[in-house]
């Protein structure tokens, strides 16, 4: 395939070299004369294991050349990759100056080009940038319509500097954001020899995936370092602790707890987070990530309160209010915080949870609920239908099997706020939504 690659930095150089090695005919484009000359002399403008040899061989065999001329590159290719830089501005905002310029240049070059051209964006971009910035610029300057005169895909890059050639051939996954299967199939063809799972998804999802990955990786590193600092303080070997931690593939290194929903609660998580944060604070160890967890959790609770207030309705039915399905432990259940706040503001609340029998609560659990909602028995319902009757807003608080077909039971006017996404296939928007999905 004839491919042009815009931006010969870390990403562009590696994909230029590797795609040329795969047998494609590659033209690299950069605004830097120095980088173009380095590639054309058979050398790599970046230091990375193996890339020097790959570029040397590809240039000598005539499968890779570089130019500053956008039109020449577009005329000589059927697909173009965009890998220009997307740095931050001083305030952290994404700087899209290079993206803007390259889109205009490619658009102008496409104006008189015959045949369908595909543009594959690889630069890291916030969701919506491809559709709201790149496509309009390409359309304006090419005078062609996206989908007809040219096609667009967003294909995030997951390589890491230091092992980028290895990562090119061993990607953790391939994600293709595409408008249709035809554009996606072109990329599938280009990557046909690469291992790993391929996801074809809407462009905005593909854009977001890259940020989620990088933010999560940063959370992992920061978490490990804060735990390490604490372990050192306790005089224990953090690596031994983390070795055991990582061996737990049920709850720790696993998809557990990674679906956006509602706040955490219960008798353990909040208590144990506070104990560790207190220990860090009093021993002079800075652990801002661990110290932020309770605050972030409270923000999630506030999001639900705000969402309920936004509806403008006053009669609220809450289904499932222990901190998770199948338990009657009400201690630090985040829904209880919401109920307290709403009762203070004069809302009419109905609570229903099959697992909770107030008369049977004992010990710390009983004391907790009596302190927070003293007259809870008065607002509890004996059945699901009683809780649904007359409630203008229904909050699904946990995923008890009894709530599975709840959407069939609510009436048209009732607003459902679902904290657990009880029905994965239900159409969201309008009267049915979550607060974090
Ligand atoms: N570096 C990484 O490890 C890595 C990994 C994954 C994703 N990314 C993302 O990929 C993108 C590129 O990153 P990078 O590290 O390769 O950047 P880089 O700064 O090393 O290279 C960008 C190149 O684009 C060139 N350029 C700018 N405007 C141009 C234009 N109009 N036409 C042609 N070339 C132009 C620059 O001269 C430069 O050589 C960024 O969005 C980055 O976030 C980077």
Account of the 3D structure:
With 437 residues, the protein is of the alpha/beta class. It has two domains: 2-201, Rossmann fold (3-Layer(aba) Sandwich); 295-433, NAD(P)-binding Rossmann-like Domain (Rossmann fold, 3-Layer(aba) Sandwich), CATH 3.40.50.720. Helix content is 44%, strand content 13%. It has 18 helices and 13 strands. The protein has helices spanning 10-21, 33-40, 51-60, 70-75, 97-110, 129-142, 164-169, 181-190, 203-234, 238-247, 269-282, 288-291, 293-311, 334-344, 363-372, 376-379, 384-388, 406-409, and strands at 2-6, 25-29, 64-67, 79-82, 117-121, 150-154, 174-178, 198-201, 315-319, 348-352, 393-396, 415-418, 432-433. The strands form two sheets. Strands 3-2-1-4-5-6-7-8 form an eight-stranded mixed sheet, with helices on both faces. The longest helix is centred in the middle third of the chain and has 32 residues, at 203-234. The structure holds nicotinamide-adenine-dinucleotide. Nicotinamide-adenine-dinucleotide binds next to helix 1 and helix 5.
């Amino acid at each position: 395939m004839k491919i042009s690659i815009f931006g010969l930095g870390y990403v562009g150089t590696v994909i230029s070299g590797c795609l040329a090695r795969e047998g494609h005919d590659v033209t690299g484009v950069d605004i830097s004369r120095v980088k173009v000359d380095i590639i054309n002399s058979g050398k790599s403008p970046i230091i990375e294991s193996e890339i020097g040899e790959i570029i040397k061989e590809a240039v000598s065999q005539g499968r890779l050349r570089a130019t500053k001329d956008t039109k020449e590159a577009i005329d000589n290719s059927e697909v173009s990759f965009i890998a220009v830089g997307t740095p931050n501005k001083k305030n952290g905002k994404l700087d899209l100056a290079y993206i803007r310029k390259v889109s205009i240049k490619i658009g102008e070059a496409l104006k008189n080009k015959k045949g369908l051209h595909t543009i594959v964006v690889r630069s890291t971009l916030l969701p919506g940038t491809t559709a709201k910035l790149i496509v309009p610029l390409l359309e304006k300057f090419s005078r062609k319509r996206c989908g007809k005169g040219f096609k667009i895909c967003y294909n995030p890059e997951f390589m890491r500097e230091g092992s980028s050639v290895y990562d090119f051939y061993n990607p953790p996954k391939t994600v293709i954001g595409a408008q249709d299967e035809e554009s996606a199939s072109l990329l599938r063809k280009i990557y046909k020899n690469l291992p790993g799972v391929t996801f074809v998804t809407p462009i905005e999802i593909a854009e977001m995936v890259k940020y989620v990955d990088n933010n999560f990786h940063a959370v992992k590193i920061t978490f490990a370092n804060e735990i390490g600092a604490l372990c050192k303080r306790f005089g224990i070997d953090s690596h031994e602790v983390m070795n055991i931690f990582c061996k737990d593939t049920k709850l720790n290194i696993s998809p557990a707890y990674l679906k956006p929903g509602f706040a955490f609660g219960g008798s353990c998580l909040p208590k144990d987070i506070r104990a560790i944060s207190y220990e860090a604070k009093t021993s002079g160890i800075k652990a801002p990530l661990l110290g932020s967890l309770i605050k972030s959790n409270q923000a999630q609770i506030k999001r639900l309160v705000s969402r309920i207030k936004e509806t403008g309705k006053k009669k609220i039915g809450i289904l499932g209010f222990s901190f998770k399905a199948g338990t009657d432990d009400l201690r630090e259940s985040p829904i209880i915080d919401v109920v307290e706040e709403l009762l203070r503001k004069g809302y009419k609340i109905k609570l229903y949870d099959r697992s909770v029998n107030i008369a049977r609560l004992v010990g710390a659990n009983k004391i907790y609920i009596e302190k927070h909602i003293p007259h809870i028995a008065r607002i509890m319902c004996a059945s699901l239908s009683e809780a649904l009757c007359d409630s203008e807003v229904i909050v699904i608080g946990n995923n008890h099997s009894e709530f599975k077909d709840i959407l069939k039971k609510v009436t048209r006017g009732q607003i459902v706020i679902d904290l657990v996404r009880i029905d994965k296939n239900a159409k969201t928007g309008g009267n049915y939504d979550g607060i974090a999905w």
